[in-house]
Design goal:
This protein is an alpha/beta fold and 227 residues long. It has eight helices and twelve strands.
Amino acid sequence: MAEGHILIVEDEEKIASLLKDYLEKSGYRASMLDRGDGVVSFVKNKAPDLILLDIMLPGMDGMEVCREIRKFSRVPIIMITAKVEEIDRLLGLELGADDYVCKPFSPREVVARVKAVLRRINPSTEESIISAGPFVLNEETHQATVDGRELKLTPSEFKLLKVMMSHQNRVFSRNDLVNLVQGYEFEGYDRTIDTHIKNLRKKIAAMLPENEIITSIYGEGYKFSVD
């Protein structure tokens, strides 16, 4: 029995075929598209469980594809980029992607990320509501509120806030947050945690300007507190 249906959107045939082989060996069903302009209709008709989406595509680039999909679907999306420097820019655009992979990559690493992302999208019912002070997170609807007002977060920001809210006053190192938010160890991802924290702080500050909810602990990491 297949673990899930993965859509690979990649115009480099060798890379797409390699990913397809590794995913199928891991028990997934995989489909391939080599253009961006056919993705939206595919998602609407076939409803894949996860999308591996390259940024540089003919027809429509991956960033625009991601924006269009997010208008109607919460399907997990892992973006693929050839430039490490591009990750920070992508995070700032708040496309709604769940993860990022940089070329060249290990197919095994990609499969590990696929497994981790799919594990995260099925929270148990008893853990679906998390609250701390004025903050309330609903994992089933992926909604966050502060004093009843909606706090609009990207998927990664939502996961980061969930982890920190679940352990108030605990100091998390960057590596802790990578492992808990991403679900696996990945060298180099810790640099993006800082970007997520920066964006999250800015959004919280807009709603609670007099409170510093997420604080930096010099040399150690970050702490969430509503005390």
